[in-house]
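Subject: Protein record for review, amino acid sequence with backbone structure tokens
Category: Structural biology, sequence-to-fold work with a learned token vocabulary.
Format: Residues in single-letter code; tokens as whole numbers, each standing for a residue.
Body of memo: The sequence and its backbone structure tokens, given next.
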Amino acid sequence: MRIKRVLSLLVLGLMGLLVWLPLGMIVFGSFFGKQEILESFGGVLASGGGMAVWHILPQYPTLQPYVSLLFDSPGFFVMFWNSMKQVVPSIIGQLLIALPAAWSFARFRFRGKRFLFYLYIILMIMPFQVTMVSSYLVLDYLSLLDSHLAIILPNVFATFPVFILVKFFEAIPMALVEAARIDGAGEGTIFFKIGLPNAAAGIVSVITLEFIEYWNALEQPLTFLKTKALWPLSLYLPEISVSELSVSFVASVIMLTPACLIFLFGQQYLEEGIVASGIKQ
């Protein structure tokens, strides 16, 4: 049994190392200078006929790539704040709509409830490519294309948060809700005093998942935004030239940081949300 446990730990450790390897390469690569980048990747990037050589640790570590990005690239900060302007309002708007909708599905009986909820599920599993044309036409009709609202508005009405939150609201004991009604609490009081506190894990898991999704979004900005001054940070990396590969590593590190922090903060709640929703993958 002990040998089996040791082998299991070794296999899991190796798999964990493989998962963390790309992240380590990005972090260490952000300290490579231009000359070391050319020595490591010149055979692939310059001539296209050689091989790349990767040193685990930089031989000549430098902060010059960070200086170039943070002090000499104002476009980076513009795109960073564009991402914040698009992601944060999207999540706030989602919660304002999804929380009452999920509470209604979980706690009220009304005609067509099951059909409407199935419609939510169908819309949830549809990829962006399916609804891209219709969304484009609606945004064009509303004269919202090429603006932050072109990204925010479709995200606000996403159905995935409703699906997650319904499971948490349904898990609230009915006896607790009935006791509150007997004490004279109205539906609004029950929602704010009982529903929201008991669904805190679901709310945090929704924030975590949706932040990561919208922070890394590519297709929506490319489809709905024509002006580069409105592009989010996720579209900044493709704009970096090959000669500034180390700056690309730095941009990747900075872009990963908010998503990693959000994920680490909401990891426990995210696991609870996945269990509650029944999602296996």
Q: What stands out?
A: The chain is about 75% helix and 0% strand. Residues 176 and 182 are 10 Å apart (CA to CA). The mean pLDDT is 83.
